[in-house]
Amino acid sequence: MDSLYKKIRQQLNEQLKHLDSRLDTHVSMLYELQDFYRRRAEVEMEYSSKLDKLVKNIITKHKTEKQRRESWPGYSTYTCWQTLLASTRRVSKDHSIAADLYNGQMCNRLSDLIDDLQRMYRNCRDIGCISHEELIKVLNELQSAMKTYHVYHGESKQAESKLRYTESQKAKVEQHASKGTLSRKFKNFEKQTEKRQAKYTENKLKALKSR
Fold it and tell me: Contact at 8 Å (CB) between 206 and 155?
């Protein structure tokens, strides 16, 4: 019983350790995702800034050399050039928005998930600890009851053995003695038999109740 009790307690502790391990793994993965989105935001913002800078530099150059480029608007290539600048500026803005989403909403959402996950795991662990304590309490009571039963059962068997021995001695006296010769001895065995019968009955009842 003791070895079984220790084994069950060890299994319960292993359950809690496994729960803690799962929490650590999940939180680590979420932190990895959060770090990824934070770095991705940096890349997007850097790309957005470089595109924006590229467009501004070209526009500044165009303004600086405006006199040399007065005839440009008359060419279809100029329209393509303007479209390219506008498109690049939109792409720059799109990547800036993506950077804000990654660094803001995504990272914040992952932080919320980490908090929710830790709270749920704490609740699960608390429930597990309470359940384990109740189970250990029941096991302790069972172990104590088993010990009590074994004590009473042993006393019952011992009382039965003494009773059977007294009954056999009484039968021998009754069988071999002439009538009246050993009546005193027979009466002593008879009294012992009654006492041991009562003791056996008492111990047997205790054993049955404890069982």
Answer: yes
